[in-house]
Design brief:
The complex is a heterotrimer of chains A (289), B (256) and C (374).
Chain A: H1 2-32, H2 39-54, H3 60-83, H4 93-115, H5 126-129, E1 131-134, E2 137-140, H6 141-163, H7 165-175, H8 177-182, H9 187-208, H10 219-234, H11 239-259, H12 264-278
Antiparallel strand pairs in A: 1-2
Helix pairs in contact in A: 1-6, 1-9, 1-10, 1-11, 2-3, 2-4, 2-9, 2-10, 3-9, 6-7, 10-11, 10-12, 11-12
Chain B: E1 6-15, E2 18-28, E3 33-37, H1 44-51, E4 59-64, E5 67-68, H2 74-79, E6 82-85, H3 97-108, H4 119-134, H5 149-162, E7 167-171, H6 179-196, E8 199-203, H7 207-213, E9 216-221, E10 224-229, H8 231-236, H9 238-243
Parallel strand pairs in B: 3-8, 3-9, 6-7, 7-8
Antiparallel strand pairs in B: 1-2, 1-4, 4-5, 9-10
Helix pairs in contact in B: 3-4, 3-5, 4-5
Chain C: H1 6-22, H2 35-63, H3 66-91, H4 99-115, H5 121-143, H6 148-168, H7 170-173, E1 179-180, H8 191-213, H9 216-226, H10 228-233, H11 238-264, E2 266-267, H12 274-287, H13 294-312, H14 316-330, H15 334-354
Antiparallel strand pairs in C: 1-2
Classes of the chains: A mainly alpha (289), B alpha/beta (256), C mainly alpha (374).
The structure holds adenosine-5'-diphosphate and magnesium ion.
Chain lengths: 289, 256, 374
C-alpha cells in the first residue's frame, strides 16, 4: 500500500509537469495550426531564468521567481510569434518543423552563452522541501506542489476555454478561422495572445520543476520529444486529450520501470505508436482537414 | 433496352445526422450522356463521390457492369473503368501538363510500379495525343499549376481520358468557364463520348449544356431523385419546374 | 577552400537537369526536326556535368591530406543519405523524421556483425540494406496509416524508439557507448581505398535512386505528392506506392549507414536519434528538395559548413538556425531551386522572342521526361 501510494504520487507529479508543457503546445496548435519544436526551449528558459532569479536565497523569493520567469518566457514567446511564427500559419508541416527547429537551435546556443553548460540546481523553500508520511508512505512535499500547480493550470485553461470570450474565440478559430475573421475578430492579436499563453505555460512548468531536476543544456531536447508524443497521442489541439495522454505516458513509464527497467522507455514509445496506429489522429483529436 | 452499365440501388449517405443522399436509384445506359441536375446542395457531388468510391455509402450499393463496387476504394473503382473529374479543380501542380497525363497512361498500363524500363518515354507520345484531343498540346511542357482555370479543367478531363475509362463522371465540368470555354468543353464531351463509345455522367448548372448534349437527365432534390427521362420529358415535368427550373435561367424559360 | 566543392557539383547538376525539362536558355527548339539533336545534347550535358563533378571529387580524394579526404568521404555518404531521404520528402511528399532508424540499422548490422563474430564485413555490407528495407516495410505499414504532420511525428517516435532500444539493450548493442573497433577488412584499411570504396558505392546507389525517380514509379510518386485524391481517383494505389517508396528509401538509408561504419569504424545510438533523422531533411531543404541533385548540394553545403564552422566558432547552431530560417521562409525551393528559378527567368525573356514560333509538338516533344524536375 505504501509502495503503491509512492508510485501514484510520483506518477501524478511527472504527468503534471508533462501536462503543463504539453498543454501550451497543444493550445498553440489548436488555435494556430502551427507545431512548435522550440516549445521545449521555452521550458528550458523557464528553468534557467528560475536559477538566475532564485540565486542562493530561498523563501518567498522562490515563488516570485516562478512568476517572473514565466512572464519573461511569455514575453519571449510573444517576440518569437511576432518575428517568425506568424509567418508559419497556414504553411506546410515541413516548413513549420524546419523553421521551429531552427528556433530550437538558435535558442539552445543562446542559452549556452547566457548560462554556460554546467548543471544548476534550485533548492525549494523549506516549507515545501521536506517529506511527509501518510499511510506509512514517505512522500516528497514538492510532488504535491507540482500536482497542485498542474491542476490549477488545468482548471485555469478549462475556465479560459469554456467561460471567457477569448476562449470562445480560440475554440472558434479551431473550427473555422475564416468565419472568425469575417466576424471582426483580430486573428493576429488572438494568435499572439495564444502563443504567449502557451509559452507562459512552458515557462511555469520549467520554473516549477527546477527543485527536482538538474537544470542543464539538453533539457530542451529531452522535454520536446516527450511533449510531442503526449500532444500527438492526446490528439493535436485537444487540452483534455493532452491531460489524458500525460497520464498514459506517466503510467506507462512507471509500470515499465517497475516491470522491466531496461524496456521502460521502449514501452513508452511502443504505447505511442500503438495509439497512433489504432487512432491516427490521437485519442481525442479530430482528423486534419 | 440494354442493361445499364452503371446503376445505384437505394444509395444513402449521412453526414452526422444529415442525409445528403437519400435512397437514390439510378440506371445509366451504356454509350449515353447522362446529366444530373439539381439546385446547390442537392447532393450531386456526394452522389458522384459515392459512385466512384471516394466516399463510402452509409447503405445501398453501386453496380458497374454487373459487378458490385459499393464500398470499394476509389483506386479500385477507377481500375474497373469508372473515373471521376472533381467539381473543384484538382491537379498535380508541380507536374508538367504532359506528365500529368502520363500518370494516367502508366497507371492504365499497370506500369506504375516499373522502376526500370523506359516505358514512360513511349507513354509520352500517347499523352501528347490525348492532349491534342483536348487542345492542350501547345502547353504540354507548362507546369500544371500555372495554367488558367479553363485549361486546368481541360487537363483534368485529359488526365481522366488517359486511363481509358468506360464511364467518365464529370462534376460541373464547365463551372467558372467563359461562354467560349463552355462551348468548347461541351463539344469535347460530345465528341469523346461518340468517338470512344464512352458513357458520360455529368452534373451541370448550365441548362444550355444540359439540354444541348444529354441523352438522359435525372433531377436530384434534397438527396432524392424527383424526376428522370429524356431532356424533353424532364423539362415538361411540373415538379422540376417548381423546385429547380422555375428559379433557373431566364425567368423560367428553358432554352435548348 | 572547403566550400568550393559544392559549387561545381551544385551548379553542374542543376544546370544539366534543368535543361531536361523544357530546353535550357541556350536551346531554341523551333520545331520537330531538330528535337532529337537537342535531346541528345541535353543528355550529353547532364552526363558531362556529372562526370566532371565525379572527376573533381575523385582527384580531391587523392590529392587532399588524409584528414580532409576523410571529411569528403563522410560528405559523400551523407549525400546518399540525403538523396535517399528526399525520395520521401521531395518526391513522395512524406515528411519523415525517422530515416535515422534505417541509417542506424545499416550501421549496426555491420558493427554488431563484427562484434558478435557472426558476419564477415562483406556479408554485413550486403545484408545491411535488406535489413533496412525490412524494418522500413514494417514501420511503413504502421506510419502510412497517418498523414502529414502525424506522419512526421510518428516517424519521429520511431527514431526515438530505435534510439532507446539500442541504448537500453546494452548487452547486445554495447549500449550508449556504442560499438568501436577494428571492424574493417585489411583491404579497406588504406584511407584512400576506403575513400574510393565509399565513393563508388554512393555513386552507384545515387544512380539507382535517380533511375527510380526517372521512371514511371517516380512520376506517379510525384503525382501523389501533389494531389493524392486526384491520383487515387485515376486508379493509383496510393498506399502501395508510398510503402514502396518508404522501403526503397529505407534500403538506401541503410546503405549510407553501413558506409558510416567504413568511415568511422563505429556505431552508436545517436545515429538513430531524431536529430540525426533531421539532418538529411535539413540537407534536402537547404539544397532544394524538388530537384534530384538538391540534397547532394545540400549535403556538401551543410556538412562542409559544419566542419569548417565548428573549428572557428562556437555558434555553429545559431548560424545553421538562421540559414534554415532564411531558406525555409524566403527560398523554399532551396539552393538548386533558386538557380532553377533564375534560369527560368532567363528562359521566359527568351520565350517572348520566340513566342510566335510555338506551334507545339508533333509526337516527341522537345525534352525527355523531367526526372530531375519533380
Ligand atoms: N463532407 C461533408 N460533411 C458534411 N456535410 C457535407 C459534406 N459534403 C457535403 N455535405 C452536405 O451534403 C449536401 C449535399 O452537398 P453536395 O453533394 O456537395 O451538393 P451539390 O453538389 O448538389 O451542390 C450539402 O448540404 C452539403 O452541405
Ligand atoms: Mg457539387
Amino acid at each position: 500500500m505504501a509502495r503503491f501510494l509512492i508510485e501514484v504520487i510520483g506518477t501524478l507529479s511527472d504527468a503534471g509537469s508533462l501536462f503543463m508543457v504539453a498543454a501550451g503546445l497543444t493550445l498553440i496548435f489548436g488555435a494556430m495550426r502551427v507545431i512548435n519544436l522550440a516549445h521545449g526551449s521555452l521550458y528550458m528558459y523557464g528553468a534557467f531564468l528560475m536559477t538566475t532569479f532564485v540565486g542562493a536565497s530561498s523563501g518567498l523569493r522562490f515563488w516570485w521567481s516562478i512568476a517572473l520567469a514565466a512572464v519573461i518566457v511569455a514575453a519571449l514567446g510573444a517576440v518569437m510569434e511576432l518575428g517568425i511564427v506568424r509567418f508559419l500559419v497556414g504553411k506546410e508541416p515541413l516548413t513549420q518543423l524546419v523553421a521551429t527547429f531552427a528556433l530550437f537551435l538558435i535558442l539552445a546556443d543562446t542559452a549556452l552563452h547566457l548560462w554556460g553548460n554546467g548543471a544548476r540546481t534550485v533548492v525549494a523553500p523549506s516549507s515545501v522541501s521536506g517529506r511527509f508520511t501518510i499511510a506509512g508512505a514517505v512522500l516528497p512535499v514538492y510532488d504535491l506542489v507540482i500536482i497542485g500547480v498542474a491542476v490549477a493550470v488545468g482548471i485555469g485553461l478549462w475556465a479560459l476555454l469554456r467561460h471567457t470570450s477569448v476562449g470562445w474565440r480560440i475554440r472558434a478559430a479551431v473550427d473555422d478561422p475564416e468565419v472568425l475573421e469575417s466576424g471582426g475578430v483580430n486573428l493576429r492579436r488572438l494568435n499572439l495572445g495564444v502563443f504567449a499563453v502557451g509559452a507562459l505555460l512552458a515557462g511555469i512548468a520549467g520554473a516549477v520543476v527546477t527543485p527536482q531536476v538538474s537544470v542543464a543544456p539538453g533539457m530542451d531536447e529531452s522535454i520536446i520529444v516527450t511533449t510531442l508524443l503526449v500532444v500527438v497521442i492526446g490528439g493535436l489541439g485537444s487540452v483534455t486529450g493532452t491531460a489524458l495522454a500525460a497520464l498514459v505516458i506517466g503510467i506507462a513509464d512507471t509500470v515499465g520501470t517497475l516491470v522491466a527497467p531496461t524496456w521502460a522507455s521502449t514501452f513508452m514509445y511502443l504505447a505511442v505508436i500503438l495509439v497512433l496506429v489504432v487512432r491516427p489522429w490521437g485519442l481525442l483529436g479530430t482528423p486534419e482537414r | 433496352m440494354s442493361s445499364p452499365i452503371l446503376a445505384t440501388h437505394r444509395l444513402v449517405r449521412d453526414f452526422g445526422g444529415f442525409r445528403a443522399v437519400d435512397g437514390v436509384e439510378l440506371a445509366i445506359e451504356p454509350g449515353t450522356i447522362h446529366a444530373l441536375i439539381g439546385p446547390n446542395g442537392a447532393g450531386k457531388s456526394t452522389l458522384f463521390k459515392l459512385m466512384t468510391g471516394v466516399l463510402r455509402p452509409t447503405s445501398g450499393d453501386v453496380v458497374l457492369g454487373g459487378e458490385s463496387i459499393g464500398g470499394k476504394r476509389a483506386h479500385a473503382v477507377a481500375r474497373r473503368g469508372l473515373v471521376q473529374v472533381f467539381q473543384l479543380s484538382s491537379i498535380c501542380a508541380r507536374l508538367t501538363v504532359v506528365e500529368s497525363v502520363m500518370v494516367g497512361i502508366v497507371t492504365m498500363r499497370h506500369r506504375s510500379f516499373d522502376p526500370v524500363t523506359l516505358f514512360h518515354r513511349r507513354a509520352r507520345g500517347e499523352a501528347l495525343s490525348v492532349l491534342d484531343q483536348v487542345g492542350l498540346v501547345d502547353l504540354a511542357e507548362a507546369r500544371a499549376g500555372k495554367l488558367s482555370h479553363g485549361d486546368q479543367r481541360a487537363l483534368e478531363i485529359a488526365m481522366a481520358l488517359a486511363v481509358r475509362p468506360s464511364v467518365l463522371m464529370l462534376d460541373e465540368p464547365t463551372a467558372g468557364m467563359s461562354p467560349a470555354e463552355t462551348r468548347a468543353t461541351a463539344d469535347l464531351i460530345v465528341s469523346e463520348a461518340r468517338s470512344r463509345n464512352l458513357t458520360v455522367v455529368l452534373s451541370e448548372h448550365d441548362m444550355d449544356v444540359v439540354f444541348g448534349i444529354s441523352d438522359r437527365v435525372t433531377v436530384l432534390h434534397q438527396g432524392r431523385v424527383i424526376a428522370g427521362g429524356t431532356p424533353g420529358e424532364v423539362r415538361a415535368h411540373p415538379e422540376v419546374m417548381a423546385v429547380y427550373l422555375g428559379q433557373g435561367t431566364d425567368g423560367g424559360e428553358v432554352r435548348s | 577552400m572547403a566550400t568550393s566543392f559544392d559549387q561545381p557539383v551544385g551548379a553542374g547538376h542543376a544546370a544539366g537537369l534543368s535543361d531536361g525539362k523544357s530546353g535550357g536558355a541556350g536551346l531554341r527548339p523551333g520545331g520537330g526536326s531538330d528535337m532529337m539533336p537537342v535531346r541528345r545534347s541535353v543528355v550529353a550535358r547532364r552526363i558531362g556535368a556529372t562526370v566532371a563533378c565525379l572527376a573533381v571529387v575523385s582527384i580531391l580524394g587523392v590529392v587532399l591530406p588524409v584528414s580532409s579526404a576523410l571529411d569528403l568521404e563522410y560528405v559523400v555518404s551523407l549525400a546518399l543519405f540525403a538523396v535517399a531521404t528526399n525520395l520521401l520528402l521531395g518526391f513522395g511528399g512524406m515528411v519523415s523524421f525517422g530515416q535515422g532508424v534505417f541509417y542506424g540499422v545499416g550501421a549496426y548490422v555491420v558493427a554488431l556483425g563484427w562484434m558478435h563474430h557472426v558476419l564477415s564485413f562483406v556479408e554485413a555490407m550486403l545484408l545491411a540494406p535488406f535489413a533496412g528495407a525490412a524494418v522500413a516495410f514494417f514501420l511503413g505499414l504502421l506510419a502510412l496509416r497517418t498523414r502529414r504532420l502525424y506522419f512526421a511525428l510518428i516517424t519521429l517516435a520511431f527514431s526515438q524508439l530505435g534510439y532507446t532500444i539500442v541504448q537500453d539493450q546494452s548487452s547486445f548493442t554495447g549500449g550508449s557507448n556504442g560499438v568501436f573497433g577494428a571492424m574493417l577488412p585489411s583491404w579497406l584499411l588504406d584511407p584512400r581505398t576506403a575513400f574510393f570504396f565509399v565513393l563508388v558505392v554512393s555513386v552507384v546507389a545515387i544512380a539507382v535512386l535517380w533511375k527510380v525517380t526517372d521512371s514511371p514509379f517516380g512520376l506517379v510518386l510525384r503525382a501523389i505528392r501533389d494531389n493524392r485524391e486526384r491520383v487515387d481517383a485515376m486508379g493509383v494505389n496510393v498506399f502501395a506506392h508510398q510503402l514502396a517508396a518508404f522501403v526503397i528509401s529505407g534500403f538506401f538509408c541503410a546503405v549510407a549507414g553501413s558506409l558510416f561504419v567504413v568511415y568511422s569504424q563505429s556505431a552508436y545510438p545517436a545515429l538513430l536519434e531524431w536529430t540525426s533523422s533531421g539532418t538529411p531533411v535539413f540537407m534536402a531543404v537547404i539544397g532544394g528538395m524538388y530537384l534530384f541533385p538538391g540534397p547532394i548540394v545540400g549535403a556538401f553545403a551543410y556538412q562542409l559548413a559544419n566542419t569548417y564552422l565548428i573549428e572557428h566558432t562556437q555558434d555553429w547552431q545559431i548560424i545553421l538556425g538562421v540559414v534554415l530560417l532564411a531558406v525555409v521562409l524566403l527560398r523554399p525551393d532551396g539552393l538548386t531551386g533558386s538557380i532553377e528559378g533564375l534560369r527560368s527567368l532567363v528562359r521566359r525573356s527568351g520565350e517572348r522572342v520566340r513566342g510566335r514560333h510555338r506551334h507545339g509538338s508533333n509526337g516527341t516533344g522537345p525534352a525527355g521526361p523531367a526526372g530531375g524536375e519533380p
